[in-house]
Fold this protein.
Amino acid sequence: MARYDKRYSVKRISIIAFLFVAMLIIACSFLISCSLKLQKNMLEASSVSYELRILIDRTSSQANLLFNPENISQLSDRILFNVRDDLVKTTGKISENNEQLRKLLLSGQGLWVMVTPSLDRQQVSVEMDKVDKTWARFQARVDDISNYNLITLRAGNKYWQPVDALIATNGPLFNSITKLNQLIYEASLLQNTRLRMLYAAVLALVLAGIWAVWFLTLRPLARRLKASYLEIMDKNQHLDYQANHDSLTGLSNRTCFNTKVHHIENRVSAVDACCLVLVDLDDFKMINDSLGHDAGDAMLKKVARDLRRLQLHGEQAYRLGGDEFALLIDEPTTREDLTARLDRLLSYVREPLTFQGMQIHCYCSIGVAWGGEHGARTLTALFKAADNALYRVKQSGRNNYCFYTDIRDDDILGVNTADESQLSASRYIQ
C-alpha cells in the first residue's frame, strides 16, 4: 500500500510539474508573440512619423510656391495648378499617415503600457493631440485652396492667412511632428531594452521550470531507480551466492565446481596447469548415526574451515555433496608445495572437534591427480585419476593421501576387510 501511494504521489507530482512547464511555455510564447508584434508596430510608427516630417517639409515648400509673389510671377498657369494639386495630394497623404500612426500606437496600447513609462505615454498622447488639432486647422485651409481658380492663385500673397504658418519650417505642426518622431524613436529604444529584459525573464522562468521538473520529478525518480537497481543487484548477488555455495559450510558447491570445470576446459592447455584433490571423510556415517546429524553438521563445518586454511595460490575448495570435498588448483604448483599443503590439511582434520562437551575425531582420505600426466588431458580423465588415487588410499588404510602418479600395477594393495560397521563410537569420541 505504501509503495502504491509513492507511485501515485510521483505520478501526481509529475503531471503537475509538466502542466506547469507547459503553461509556462504557452505564456512565454504568448508574451514573446505580443512583444514582437508591438516591436513591429513601434518600428512602423517610427517610420511613419519620419515620413510625416518629410511630407510636412514638402507641404511647406509647396505653400511657399503658391503664396510667394516672386515665385508666382515666374510660374506658368499649368505649373500653378500642378503645385496646388500636389499640395492637396500631399496633405491627403499626411492625413492618411497621421491616421495610420494613431492606429499603430493605439493597436498595441495594452502591451505598450508594459514596456513604456507612464510619462512617455502621456507625452506621446499630448503630441498626438497637438498634431491632430493643428492638422485639422490646416486641413480646412487646404480644402479652400483646392477650390482656388487661376486669378486667386495669381494673387496668392493677398490671400495669405496666419494658418499657413502652421506648416512652415519650425512652425507648430512641424515642431509637433518632429517631437512626436523623437518620442516614438525613444519609446522604440526603451521597448527594445524592456524586451531584452523580458527575454531574460522568460529564459529564467524556463530554466526554473526545468529545474522544478528535475527537482520534483526526475530527481526523486532517479533516486528510486537507483535504490531499486541496488536492491535488484543485491538480490541477484544473494541468489547467485545461494546458487553457487553450499548453505551449510559456505564452500562453493557442485554447480560452481562444474562451471569452473567448463571454464577450464574451454581454455587452451588449461588442464595441464591444474591439479585436482578429492577429499573424502573416513567413517563419517558413524558420526551421524552415533551422535546425530547436528554433530555431523558441526564436523562438516569444521572440515570446511580446515580446507580454507593456508590455501595455495589459485586453490579453490568445493563441497561436492555429503562428506565429499574437492580442491581445484588452477595454477601451476610443485609437488613439494602440494605435499606440504596436504600434510597440513591432514593435521587440521585430525584435530578434535569439541561438540556439547565431547571431543569428536574425524579423518579423511585424499586422492590427487595432476593435469596432463598419464593421459589426463581432460577434466573427466583428471577426475577419474583423482578418484582412483582416493580409492587406493581407502584400500591402504585411509587417513592419508595418494598421488595418481604413484600408483603402480605391481603394488595394488588388497581391500581392507575390517568390518567398519563393528567399529565403536568411542573411536570418534574422547
Q: What stands out?
A: The longest helix spans residues 172-244. Strands lie at 275-282, 315-321, 324-329, 353-355, 358-360, 363-370, 401-403.
